Automatic annotation (TrEMBL):
This is Fructose-bisphosphate aldolase. It comes from Conger conger. SUPFAM superfamilies: Aldolase. GO terms for biological process: glycolytic process. Keywords: Glycolysis, Lyase, Schiff base, Signal.
Length: 385
């Protein structure tokens, strides 16, 4: 065996220093630490330039008082939204509604996540959507996963597909104007869930996705969503969230993912439980955590986000929003597929954006004026995106 210290002359000194003169590690520990040290430094996953680019994109996305609009519903999911207001799920109607959203000021946003189809559509004025968004100083994101697939032999648990060809797709999306990506994994709580298999599998696939995105200059949003479905209590949910997040960050480390160039998109619960779970598991090097709304009503999601930002505990990351349902429900309800309602729909959308901007600073207080659409639960059992 090689003498371990010759490769890493400062290591033993550092361990002595940390231990106040008493060695903190045995010689065997030092061999292990030295080997880890050698591994990461001999085969760097990213160049300094790549890291700089990724961390500057991630920093732009966590600007204070701003958040992300998740407008990346697949064709099928958008169909369900449109069906609720009796609007046909045609390519033109999907384009029209997205145009309605994107042609507002989008002042409270730093990022918009698109679905593949939308990335290649144009505004009413004939301008490609990525350009419309970028011209407002907003970062363009893209959903890159291909939906869930069952984990056989489990209580209905899933993994998420889409790794095949992902690198090539990411390279193309980067060329086409995207700077970040999203991949949603879904976990559930029941007597037997989340199982060890589902935790390990979803953590690993998120890490593979994140690593591939970073190689292609896209900041990965890492989304391990734990569904609210079930009759479990808050404690159980917090426990599951901690176990899932701990596994995700172990996998990201194993895959040499550069955390400063990532964002986390988790479920949110009652504020104190949420912040406690995050403090126990999410490294301080992660620049921001942008919550999904997960079927809460628009108003509930905003109030919870605001409460999270008022918790008197250290929070080393920005805590903001990346809502889908909780940013679009009032707008869809106001629109009803009628061109004459366009302005009313835009006003509803902008009003939610302003409220969530306040919430991301912990400054939103209920006014009691939220309308019917904003109070309505947006929950769907076993939600697919
Ligand atoms: P909801 O806010 O509707 O839960 O969805 C956000 C999202 O992007 C889920 O992947």
């Amino acid at each position: 065996m090689q003498a371990p210290f010759s490769r890493c002359p400062f290591l033993i000194g550092e361990l002595y220093l940390l231990g106040g003169g008493t060695p903190l590690a045995s010689a065997a520990d030092v061999v292990t630490i030295t080997q880890t040290y050698k591994m990461t430094h001999q085969y760097p996953a990213l160049s300094p330039e790549q890291k700089r680019e990724l961390s500057s994109i991630a920093q732009r996305i966590v600007a204070p008082g701003k958040g992300i609009l998740a407008a990346d519903e697949s064709v099928g999911t958008m169909g369900k939204r449109l069906q609720k207001i009796n609007v046909e799920n045609s390519e033109e109607n999907r384009r029209y509604f997205r145009d309605l959203l994107f042609s507002t000021g989008l002042g409270e946003y730093v990022g918009v996540i698109l679905f593949h189809e939308t990335l290649y559509q144009k505004s009413d004025a004939g301008v490609a959507f990525p350009k419309v968004i970028k011209d407002k100083g907003i970062v363009v994101g893209i959903k890159v996963d291909k939906g869930t697939a069952g984990l056989n032999g489990t209580d209905g648990e899933t993994t998420t597909q889409g790794l095949d060809g992902l690198s090539e797709r990411c390279a193309q999306y980067k060329k086409d104007g995207c700077d970040f990506a999203k991949w949603r994994c879904v976990l559930k709580i029941s007597d037997a869930c989340p199982s060890a298999l589902s935790i390990a599998e979803n953590a690993n696939v998120l890490a593979r996705y994140a690593s591939i995105c970073q190689q292609n200059g896209l900041v990965p949003i890492v989304e391990p969503e734990i569904l609210p479905d079930g009759d479990h209590d808050l404690q159980r949910c917090q426990y599951a969230t901690e176990k899932v997040l701990a596994a995700v960050y172990k996998a990201l480390s194993d895959h040499h993912v550069y955390l400063e160039g990532t964002l986390l998109k988790p479920n949110m619960e009652v504020a104190m439980a949420t912040v406690t779970a995050l403090r126990r598991t999410v490294p301080a090097s992660v620049p921001g955590i942008c919550f999904l709304s997960g079927g809460q009503s628009e108003e509930e999601a905003s109030l919870n986000l605001s409460a999270i930002n008022q918790i008197p505990l250290g929070r080393p990351w920005k805590l903001s929003f990346s809502f889908g349902r909780a940013l679009q429900a009032s707008a869809l309800a106001a629109w009803q597929g009628q061109p004459g309602n366009r302005q009313a729909a835009q006003e509803a959308f902008c009003s939610r954006a302003k409220i969530n901007s306040l919430a991301s600073k912990g400054e939103y207080r209920p006014t009691g004026e939220a309308d019917q659409a904003a109070m309505q639960s947006l929950y769907t059992a076993s939600y697919v995106y």
